[in-house]
Specification:
This protein has eleven helices and 13 strands. The protein is an alpha/beta fold. The chain has a single domain, classed as TIM Barrel, CATH 3.20.20.210. An eight-stranded parallel beta sheet has the order 1-13-12-11-9-8-6-2. A three-stranded mixed beta sheet has the order 3-5-7. The protein has a two-stranded antiparallel ribbon with strand order 4-10. Residues 124-359 form the Cobalamin-independent methionine synthase MetE C-terminal/archaeal domain. It holds the Pfam family Meth_synt_2. GO terms for molecular function: 5-methyltetrahydropteroyltriglutamate-homocysteine S-methyltransferase activity; zinc ion binding.
Length: 366
């Protein structure tokens, strides 16, 4: 692994996804239906979207660049292509209850007059089913990662993959009989994908584990083992991301007592860095003590759709406060979470100021 500058910069994963490419209103529809581009032109259009995302990240000066996740509809659906998973005939989710919902205020959608006259029905969620042994059968993101490597010119490459615990909780198990066994099978399958990424020289491989926060109580006993099985043998730099969910859907995020526990859990894994949502929930530096000896990728960009672009000084102040707890060699700057639903101008202005803040921090602490 090559060394990073102080206060290395990166986004979590997704960048602005062009409206000419995808219909943002269909993000939670069946995988694949949100694309606006005809199938015969889709790959070329996605290539162009990746080029734009990388161009913006390198123009801003970020240390790492992702492909903006431009080829993905959601952060999870891309990985339902593992063997043993049936995405067509989905099953009813019965373990959806979370540990932190009381700390989140969801954005209200418009109610039609017809809906207003009906009693509210309990929500029903359906997810892909596990119908046989979970296996890795083909590359899932490795081809896209190769295109990223070819496209980057100044930035290091970063690729994100859903974590095994979070993917397991998005599946309806009809084969293994226990959630931990689903997670371990997912981890072993994902490890083969991560080894492909490692072999091609990806600089940073990140597993996204939001469920370590949302449904901590359901996976705290086995998440560390699952994550370490997924990371087994990986020589590239490793990161874990844990968050509060997309700001597109959440109006207010408050600090939760579960989040420190989630970070403590991730600190027990073999990861090199933990990527945190910090800005929008207005976390305080004491939270960072839970990361132990891991590097911290501090979320300094509030991605609420109504949030203004952070000034350079605001980001510098946030980072300097964090330095009361985290050594300067282990503090990096990032976005709170994915940015796909924001405008390109807002995304670019935010990441540009983040990099400018990093440069100022290097002047102060270099």
């Amino acid at each position: 692994m090559t060394s990073n500058p102080l206060f290395a910069t990166q986004i979590v994963g997704s960048y602005y996804k062009p409206h000419w490419l995808a219909d943002h209103e269909l993000v939670y529809a069946k995988e694949g239906v949100w694309w606006r581009v005809p199938p015969e032109q889709l790959l070329s259009a996605q290539d162009d979207a990746v080029r734009l995302a990388v161009f913006d990240q390198e123009r801003a000066g970020l240390t790492y660049a992702t492909d903006g996740e431009e080829r993905r509809q959601t952060f999870s659906g891309h990985f339902y292509a593992l063997g043993g998973i049936d995405s067509d005939e989905q099953g009813l989710v019965t373990n959806f209850s979370g540990d932190v919902l009381e700390y989140l205020t969801m954005k209200q959608r418009a109610i039609t007059s017809d809906e207003n006259q009906k009693p509210a029905a309990p929500p029903e969620f359906r997810q892909p089913r596990v119908v046989g042994p979970i296996t890795w059968e083909r590359a899932l993101v490795a081809d896209a990662a190769q295109f990223l490597k070819k496209t980057t010119t100044t930035a290091k490459s970063k690729v994100t993959v859903i974590g095994p615990a979070s993917l397991a909780l998005r599946l309806v198990d009809e084969h293994y009989g226990s959630l931990d066994q689903v997670a371990f099978a997912v981890a072993d399958a994902l490890n083969k994908e991560l080894r492909l990424l490692d072999d091609m020289g990806i600089d940073l491989i990140q597993l996204d584990e939001p469920e370590v926060h949302f449904r901590h109580s359901q996976l705290q006993d086995f998440a560390v083992e699952a994550i370490d099985r997924a990371f087994a043998g990986i020589k590239a730099r490793k990161a874990l991301h844990v968050c509060y969910g997309y700001s597109k859907n959440i109006a207010e995020k408050r600090a939760t007592p579960v989040y420190p526990e989630a970070i403590k859990l991730l600190a027990q894994t073999s990861t090199d860095a933990i990527s945190l949502e910090y800005a929008q929930p207005m976390q305080t530096p004491e939270l960072l003590e839970n990361a132990g000896d891991k590097s911290v990728i501090l979320g300094v960009l509030n991605l609420d759709t109504e949030a203004p672009v952070e000034s350079v000084q605001q980001i510098v102040d946030m980072a300097n406060a964090a330095l009361e707890v985290v050594d300067k060699q282990k503090l990096e700057l990032g976005s709170d979470c994915g940015m796909w639903f924001l405008s390109r101008d807002v995304c670019f202005d935010k990441i540009t100021n983040m990099e400018l803040a990093a440069q100022e921090l290097r002047r102060q602490h270099g």
